[in-house]
Amino acid sequence: MRKLIQFKNVVKDFDGQLVLKGINLDIMENEFVTLLGPSGCGKTTLLRILGGFIEQSEGQVFFDDIEISKVPPYKREINTVFQRYALFPHMDVFDNIAFGLRIKKTSENIVKQKVTKMLKLVNLEGYENRAVTLLSGGQQQRVAIARALVNEPMVLLLDEPLGALDLKLRKEMQLELKKIQKEVGITFIYVTHDQEEALTMSDKIVVINEGEIQQIGTPTDIYNEPENRFVADFIGESNIIDGIMIDDYRVFFDGIEFECVDYGFEDNEEVDIVIRPEDLDIVPLEMGKLSGKVVSTLFKGVHFEIVVETPNRKFIVHTTDNSPIGTQVGLHFFKEDIHVMWKMGTY
Amino acid sequence: MVGSKPAKMLPFFLIGITLLFFYLPILIMIVFSFNGSRSLTNWAGFSTQWYTQLFNSRDMMAAVMTTVSIALISTVISTFVGTITAIGLSKSNKVIKETVLMISNLPILNPEIVTAIGLMLLFSAFAIRRGFATMLLAHIAFSIPYVILTILPKLRTLDPNLAEAAMDLGATPWQALIKVLVPQITPGIVAGALIAFTMSFDDFVISYFVTGNGVKNISILVYTMSKRINPTINALSTILVVIITIALVLVNALPMLRKKERIAIE
User: Fold this and answer.
1) CA B109 to CA B105: how far, in whole Å?
2) Does chain B have fewer CB atoms within 10 Å around its N or its C terminus?
3) Which ranges constitute the DSSP H helices of A59-133?
4) Which domain holds residue A267?
5) Which of A73, A88, A104 shows the shortest C-beta gap to B162?
6) Model's pTM, two decimal places?
7) pLDDT confidence bin for A346, thresholds 50/70/90
8) Is residue A229 part of a domain?
9) How many Å lie between the alpha carbon of A140 and the closest alpha carbon of chain B?
């Protein structure tokens, strides 16, 4: 695979406020990349720099090995699906999708062919002459995607496109977007703050916080091997514990030494440890590696969320078996369920 | 609620006298434009002499020409300038936007006489010959703030990414403006243009102070003849009322006709 887009030390400040603090990121051809982070972390700013709507304060952006910082948006082979779709309200569905082709003076014959093909791709056949203002959120979304894709860009940027849809529709669109990406075979760069959305769709996730990249990896990497406390906390629920790495494969926390699978730390280095709630199991008192008392239980549909209070902290446990409040229980986990991470400098 | 009969009639009565108050004067004016004598109060039989006189009066026709041409030119220019200013302001940061708006609104809040004297002093300070050109410049200047004020609210309701979406799809900034932004705010532009036209058409105070060398618009002509008012002015006003009525009917009827046509086609 070829590197299509390269961010090199991209910095952006708005009136002295640093929004991006030196982003280095490579994006390959045909990749589904998600920029994931809380609101205000700079992910949308990064997307807008790539789209050409704002310029970085420092650093370079390469597209196909060419520096593009000074190239205006209308000359970039990149199209965007905007947060609120930004459809043109005075045009019907067909004219919206045909807009880019007509700007390029494509003959009406070809316009018709291409628009029809796009309407089919996004499942909107027969909607050609509808006013876009009368469509539902999901349909507007599809028009926005078709309007961008009809120009056959090399990259499609999507800025939280599913934010306005309800949960069920959002799940449908997630799968559909993934399907469309496979079908057209181009790079999708997707911005979201929804970790579940990121895990479902992406080939690669870039976790961003406060203008800095926290971790880049596949969804499984990011979930199973979070690099720091922020990533562990942001991606799913976690129990995050302060501990000390005694030696390779040996970690100490809550007054007990545990065997683990991590290595490569300094001896006696202070570390953060994460144990996912679904990796913890409630067992009879004498069989647990730790013990505590059940202080709350919540039914969540598929599982119960049980909080167990040990002498040192509260653990969140996801399990399918309920335990009544007040029972003394043991907590069990395997050595590979302990994920050891470097301490973050600033957290 | 059970109201007594007179109480129920009250709203209709109020509407009735309001309409009467608005339209009776116009009606009287129209009737007396066909009066056979010079009197503005006594009816002396039907005649179209005032219309003939109107079209034969060189002063009157010159004033009509001046008024209409100044109104048209100043409407076109002020609408254009006002529209791009409003679009620019909608994309500017808050400080610039509020400063410009404040400066632009000041002439609206100022008594007209202040603007008028100010303009007069300005023109004489620079020794500019007063006449058609100075009047036109003044009209353009006082119309622009109204155009900006009419268009800005419409711009606020637009998706902030519209222009960006157009450029993203390959449109140059100019194409984005013409193909996407302007069609969106057309109703605002039309409203702004109408206000500019009306303001210019019947302006007296400012026009009076900035004109010279015998250039008069209708208002100036009427005010200066008020001592010995003659019914040609009734004839002129009647013609204006008829034109405005026809324009209003067309504006309201055309969209309905078009809709009917579309339905018929489908």
Assistant:
1) 7
2) N
3) 93-103, 108-121
4) 239-277+333-347
5) A88
6) 0.76
7) very low
8) no
9) 14
Q: Are A104 and A114 in contact (CB under 8 A)?
A: no
DSSP state of A335: G
pLDDT tens figures, A52-64 = 888 899 899 999 8
Mean pLDDT for A3-22 is 88
Q: Are residues A145 and A219 in the same domain?
A: yes
In terms of domains, do A100 and A248 share one?
Answer: no
Same domain, A267 and A307: no
Degrees, nearest 5: CA angle A148-A118-A141 = 55
| Interface residue ranges in chain B relative to chain A, Cβ cutoff 8 Å | 159, 161-162, 164-172, 175, 179-180, 183-184
Note whether A160 and A109 are within 8 A (CB). no
Inform me whether the C-beta atom of residue A74 falls under 8 Å from chain B C-beta atoms. Answer: yes
Q: Which of A86, A90, A151 sits opposite B165 (nearest CB)?
A: A86
Give me the numbers of helices (H) and strands (E) for chain A, helices first please.
8, 20
Copy the structure tokens of residue A194. Answer: 């929804």
Question: Which chain A residues contact residue B164 at CB under 8 A?
Answer: 51, 53, 73, 80, 82, 86
- Decide if pLDDT at A33 tops 90: yes
- Does the pLDDT value for residue A345 go beyond 70? no
Q: Looking at the structure, do residues A138 and A26 belong to the same domain, yes or no?
A: yes
Q: Give dist(CA B235, CA B60) in Å, integer.
A: 11
On whether the CB atoms of residues A218 and A205 are closer than 8 A, the answer is yes
> Mind telling me how many Å the CA of A304 is from chain B's nearest CA?
43
Testing the interface with B: which of A14, A79, A88 to mutate, by most B Cβ within 10 A? A88
Indicate whether A58 and A148 sit together in one domain.
yes
A84 with A212, same domain: the answer is yes
ipTM: 0.78
CATH number at residue A102: 3.40.50.300
Which residues does residue A18 pair with via DSSP β-bridges, in sequence order? A13
CATH number of B59-159+187-222: 1.10.3720.10
A153 touches chain B (CB under 8 A): no
Query: Residue A273 sits in a domain of what CATH number?
Result: 2.40.50
Q: Read off the tokens for B57.
A: 């009066």
Instruction: Point out the residue among B161, B171, B183 whose CB comes nearest to the CB of A84.
Output: B161
List, for residues A238-267, the tens digit of each pLDDT value.
Answer: 888 888 888 888 888 888 888 888 888 888
